[in-house]
Amino acid sequence: MAKFSVLIPVYNGGDHFRETVDSVINQTFADIEVVISDDASTDKSASIIKEYAEKDKRVVPIFMERNMGTAAVRSHLVSKATGDYCIFVDADDELVIDACEVLSDVIVSIDADIIQFGENVINSSDLPEESIKWFVDYIKPLQERLISDDLLHLCFAERKFAWNLHGKVFKTDLLKKAYDNIGDDRVISCEDIYGMFYILFYARSYQGIDYSPLYNYNYGRGANGQKTVSLQRYQNVCYQATISEKHEEFAERMGVTAWLKDILELNREMFVHGGVECWLSFSEKDRIARLPILLDAWEPDLVINKLATKYIKPYESEISFLKETIANLENRVDEVQAEHDNVAAMLNSVWNSRWHKLGVKLKKLIPTTQP
After folding, report:
1. Nearest one of 240, 248, 253, 246 to 265, comparing CA atoms
2. Which pLDDT tens digit goes with each residue over 296-315?
3. Which of 16, 209, 295, 332 is least surrounded by CB atoms within 10 angstroms?
4. 112: confidence class by pLDDT, cuts 50, 70, 90
5. CB 207 within 8 A of CB 138
6. Residue pLDDT, tens place only, 10-46
């Protein structure tokens, strides 16, 4: 039995796929198996896998008969894994050459269901540096040991550590238990969040380590490198509604809906936000045409609330000031009206009094005629 199973899902791996596989089979630590699954690619990915499998007996090939999506492919990878621990590697990233050797020493001294290690983030698509910096900070391992039966909240609610599958080593038994809930589920967006939800439900310990980076993440080669939103990407993002539905069904089946209520709501809000942001990136004409896709995925109230939050929340202080000013003006109008009424009453009283005095004087001047 190998110490590590390195799991690589691929669909149309392109020019970088060989670099990924080479980075794994050339590890300085040899006690590994490399399980690679081709998701019915239309390029040469399948033939590349066959080539490596013929040359290296540690390579375990899997070929999907039809395109299943990354989540289902990972499920098949996990089912074939025989190592004590598993490492996920995306088909456009690489392991650092001594990653498995370093991790083999780490697991001797650290017993944890999930161990997170550092990553090199490479700007592969000339993306803005602020985006790179945000991602570097986001995937930084938490230098802390967490032992809890509620790692789901620590990750998704408290954001203690990232939910990405890359940059982590998992106990294989944990993954098998988690991915039994996924099976052949077709998920075409946010596959890491989808899988990590189940993993953290069963996991009881996490440890981040402060070592030299062991994984090269090529930021920009995948969906995060697209500078414009295509119709396909928009549809994939809207498909995330399915993830929420599946997580909610799982929570209900396990009898933990109340316990996970806030997590389910947070993730739903995040997915709706992603869909709305994609929709807003289109031209006015395309927004009109593509609005039904958004409303088919999410309830109209959720979409409207997210739009209201986006356009109103940034001006909450100004709106509050205006409300206060209007209230003050209304109070002042009432005060002015009261003052006006008082003055009018006084003038009316004075006017009536003067007419009364004038009438008395006239009576004295005009003689009374006797009949």
Report:
1. 248
2. 999 888 888 888 877 776 66
3. 332
4. very high
5. no
6. 999 988 999 999 999 999 999 999 999 999 999 999 9
Distances in Å between the alpha carbon of 4 and those of 34, 185, 339?
Answer: 9, 25, 86
Residues 44-62 pLDDT 10s: 999 999 999 999 999 999 9
CATH of the domain at 151: 3.90.550.10
Is 0.90 surpassed by the pTM of this model?
A: no
Same domain, 237 and 302: yes
Residue with tokens 């356009």: 311
Inter-residue contact 213 to 117 (CB < 8 Å) = yes
Q: Report the candidate in 75, 270, 45 with the shortest Cα–Cα distance to residue 157.
A: 270
Domain of residue 254, residue span:
231-315
Helix H, strand E, coil C: the string for the chain is CCCEEEEEEECCCHHHHHHHHHHHHCCCCCCEEEEEEECCCCCCHHHHHHHHHHHCCCEEEEECCCCCCHHHHHHHHHHHCCCCEEEECCCCCEECCCHHHHHHHHHHHCCCCEEECCEEEEECCCCCHHHHHHHHHHCCCCCCEEECCCHHHHHHHCCCCCCCCCCEEEEHHHHHHHHCCCCCCCCCCCHHHHHHHHHHHHCCEEEECCCCCCEEEEECCCHHHCCCCCHHHHHHHHCHHHHHHHHHHHHHHHCCCCCCHHHHHHHHHHHHHHHHHHHHCCCHHHHHHHHHHHHHHCCHHHHHHHHHHHHHHHHHHHHHHHHHHHHHHHHHHHHHHHHHHHHHHHHHHHHHHHHHHHHHHHHHHCCCCCC
pLDDT above 60: residue 85: yes
